[in-house]
Amino acid sequence: MKYIVLMGAPGAGKGTQAKLLEKRLGLPQVATGDLFRHNLNNQTELGKLAQTYMDKGNLVPDEVTVAMVRQRLSQPDCANGAILDGFPRTLAQAEALDALLAEFNGRINAVPFIHVETSVLIERLLKRAEIEGRADDNAETIRNRMNVYQHQTAPLLDFYRNRGLLKEIDGDQSIEAVQETLRQTIESA
Ligand code: ADP
User: Fold this and answer.
1) Judging by beta carbons within 10 Å of its beta carbon (0-12, 13-18, 19+), is residue 161 exposed, middle or buried?
2) I need a surface site. Which of 62, 105, 110, 179 has the fewest CB within 10 A?
3) Is residue 113 lining ligand 1, measured as CB closer than 6 Å?
4) How many angstroms separate the alpha carbon of residue 103 from the centre of ligand 1?
5) Are 128 and 15 in contact (CB under 8 A)?
6) Where are the alpha helices (DSSP H) in 104-154?
7) What is the set of domains in the chain, with CATH numbers?
């Protein structure tokens, strides 16, 4: 079993890299943002609840998010592990993930952190807003998501660094170059 936790601020390229890694490692990408958006498109109760938070760029409450991840990681295609993208995003979620993986007799193998300067991130997100028209990619929400990231998610970097799991990667390179570095990092973990 192999669990990879991809860390990085909004716009760092986690989703793009996770999709490429999925093929390489033969492990599914488990992206909480995508799971919430899927629920939203299908107008499930979970989707309607998540929307009220996502629209403002706030985090969906931990218990809701953890329950969703537990269900996803229990599915047969995750039997050999998963690439986690966008989870955990709070210390409480990180602790819940440890407990969950202990139940599955698994553990986190590596935590690659895709590092990109804030100014570059904001530029990328504004561009994505134009191209994809994602509801939460507008200037105000982007600012809030960055704030939420700094306050609630960035402390996780030390949490994983202290355990020797964090591997910093320069995310301001081509998609292919980031992928290559990521692959090497995971292989040597
Ligand atoms: P981003 O590009 O901001 O990283 P995501 O697609 O990962 O976007 O997430 C979009 C939104 O979904 C977040 O702003 C948040 O509202 C919600 N979300 C995603 N993952 C989590 C999580 N682990 N905990 C709480 N909320 C989450």
Assistant:
1) middle
2) 105
3) no
4) 25
5) no
6) 118-132, 139-148
7) 2-187 (3.40.50.300)
